Amino acid sequence: MLTQEIHTKALFAAALATGQYLAEYGEQFPCGFAKVIADVNGNTKIGKSFKACGFEKNYGGGWYFWNPSQSMTQSVDAKYAGVRAYIQVINEYLPNVNLYGHTALD
User: Fold this and answer.
1) Which residues share a beta bridge with 64?
2) Closest to 97 measured CA to CA, from 89, 33, 8
3) Which pLDDT value is given to residue 18?
4) Less packed terminus of the chain by CB within 10 Å, N or C?
5) Angle at Cα 79 formed by Cα 82 and Cα 22, nearest 5°?
6) What's the pTM value of the predicted model, to 2 decimals?
7) Strand order in the sheet with 32-38
8) What average pLDDT does range 52-75 have in this prediction?
9) What is the pLDDT of residues 39-51, one digit of tens each?
10) Span 10-38, mean pLDDT?
11) pLDDT value, residue 106
12) Within 10 A of 30 (CB to CB), how many other CB atoms are there?
């Protein structure tokens, strides 16, 4: 189950990773968006735990969480660094849940 505590740790890791990326590389192009997609069924206990932490129904299936770093940067690479960090933390606690990042250029 994705608990609020695990989610908060992952959000912190995402914000830290995005901040580190920006400190090292600065605000770079391309501009875009990044999100985490959890391949879970929303009617299951695990799916409901993701929904309780703010995940929303994804158009292509599963559930998504938009910009876990909550950074206002336009750099898609910086946002994706946050997505990777978020996934890494969740995978430590929930290794059997399929999570992946998705980006879109603006």
Assistant:
1) 37, 56
2) 89
3) 98
4) C
5) 90
6) 0.96
7) 56-57, 63-66, 32-38, 99-105
8) 96
9) 999 999 999 999 9
10) 95
11) 86
12) 11
3-state SS, the chain, equals: CCCHHHHHHHHHHHHHHHHHHHHHHCCCCCEEEEEEEECCCCCCHHHHHHHHCCCEECCCCCEEEECCCCCCCCEHHHHHHHHHHHHHHHHHHCCCCCEEEEEEEC
| Cβ 67 vs Cβ 10: under 8 Å | no
* The amino acid at 37: I
> Is the confidence at residue 29, as pLDDT, over 90?
no
For 48-70, letters b (16+ CB in 10 Å) and e give bbbbebebeebeeebbbbebbbe
Single-letter amino acid code for the residue at 31: C
Residue 104, classified by CB atoms within 10 Å of its CB into exposed (0-12), middle (13-18) or buried (19+), is exposed
